[in-house]
Amino acid sequence: MTTAPLTVSAGQQADADWWRQAAVYQIYPRSFADSNGDGIGDLGGIISRVPYLQQLGLDAVWLSPFYPSALADGGYDVDDFRDVDPKIGTLAEFDEMVAALHGAGIKLIVDLVPNHSSDRHEWFREALASPKGSNARARYIFRDGMGENGELPPADWTSIFGGPAWTRVPDGQWYLHSFATEQPDFNWKHPEVHEDFKRTLRFWSDRGVDGFRIDVAHGLAKDLDEVLPSRAELKAMPKDGTHPLWDRDEVHEIYAEWRAVFNEYTPARTAVAEAWVETPERRAKYASPEGLGQAFNFDLMEADFDATHFRDIVTDNLAQSAVTGSSTTWVFSNHDGIRHATRYGLPPRNGQAVKHGAEWVLAGGPEDGIDKELGLRRARAATMFELALPGSAYLYQGEELGLHEVAEIPDAQRQDPAFWRTTAEDRGFDGLGRDGCRVPLPWTREGESFGFGTGGAHLPQPAWFADFSVEAEDGVAGSTLEMYREALRLRSQLQSEESLTWDEKLSTGDVLAFERPGGWLSVTNFGDAPVALPEGEVLLASTPLASDDGGAGGVSTGGQQLPGATTVWLRRMGA
Ligand code: NOJ
């Protein structure tokens, strides 16, 4: 175990805040790069691409689960929290990867999955082999069934992925799984669960991990009476800290324990909560410095490309982070949602859940309601808007290439349990589950699996990937990849204090403009029609500006235009 030194140098202290305005890139390891040709991305693949990550200009990588797993839920079904899946590497390679990332100036955040293990975890196997009422069973949530012979589940609850949330084991008892059948929920009232996760936090922290992304952070604490409420009763209960399953107040006692562990290290290890809660105030609890320190806010991910929505979200979240002293987070895409290039090419949701038939997204093409070109153009503008904001920006692998969601995956090849546990009718917004954003990345225009590896790809890649490959975009002026590289480079130079001032004069109608200290002005035109380009030195634009003197690197003196669905960064004259 590492113990805290008595004195902390100025350099280390400065480093302790590295996460506050970091650009963090999410790697979904099995789909990033495959070094051994088995069709599954691996740690060797990540190590080989560290120069790419460095050139992108990132502060940190967030690595989705890489632990041993049968992949019932893309790795979020963990067999062993303190090991690497042999399909994707070894602990020695993990150490090598940490060294390579750190050598490139990139921090590492790993995904921690404390709500559940997989059904292959040694504790769950022990639970199945042990009798009812045993200590082994008490680490999970086992119950007797209802009905004359216990043949009915203890309650009629459904899992987040659809289908029943209780599964029966051979001796007749039932266990709770909030997600897939293969993901039994832990009982966080059991002290051994606490001790084991603290051991896991130290295990990875000792190996040099800089922070943790906490999966389902709002789900750990549960309070279940002998008589369980029905599904309808559960639904009607307020999520104000007293709900039996979600966002209970005492979950923060767990995170206070973890904070003590994080603070054993120098700099302190960081954490970011994935917490789906009802109000900004409840989210702030997860971001408290006595707890995890930061929490994801998915508001932009759920909003239409709309000036008013964006402004409200930014204002609310900055105010909220000011209360806790945390820094806010921004996300447009991740491994659970439709890529934003595709989302913004679909009809607006206006904050409401819109039902898309499965075929709608599947078919693509303007006649089916998707405009891929407009979607990408808006996505680029949204990303530049995001990268100019104070707070941490979480980017998802492939968005720097402008990748769209892959809709054309045959059902038989789909892997997402959420796809398989629901019907087309009750599937949510995307209609197709989450495989479309998890297709292995295209590195080259041609060749075996577009350069992902020499042994194919575990999800089928469409032909259009060629034009979105790293090879197709590398060094090409105006490509999405070059836009991300330049935006990240400028951001690291321009970013200073975590403050933002809306430019009220420019922010009218479809335009949203704000200034960061040092005269860094970000202006987004959310509409379709061009508007006047403000004066200033043009640093970067998300779509090429028409006039020569308004192009990147030029000076706008008035009279030029800012096209629709475009963000431009300017430096105010004289700043
Ligand atoms: C949230 C993760 O982001 C998602 O991918 C996973 O399926 C669930 N938690 C369950 O672990």
Helices and strands, with pairings:
Elements: H1 10-15, E1 23-27, H2 43-48, H3 50-56, E2 60-63, H4 91-103, E3 107-112, H5 122-129, H6 135-138, E4 142-143, E5 166-168, E6 174-176, H7 191-206, E7 211-214, H8 231-236, H9 251-262, E8 270-273, H10 280-286, E9 293-295, H11 299-302, H12 307-324, E10 329-331, H13 340-343, H14 358-363, H15 372-388, E11 392-396, H16 417-420, H17 470-473, H18 480-494, E12 501-502, E13 511-516, E14 520-525, E15 531-532, E16 536-541, E17 555-556, E18 561-562, E19 566-571
Parallel strand pairs: 1-2, 1-11, 2-3, 3-7, 7-8, 8-9, 10-11
Antiparallel strand pairs: 4-6, 5-6, 12-13, 13-14, 14-19, 15-18, 16-17, 16-19
Helix pairs in contact: 7-9, 10-12, 15-18
This protein binds 1-deoxynojirimycin (NOJ).
1-deoxynojirimycin (NOJ) binds at residues 73, 76, 113, 179, 215-216, 274, 335-336.
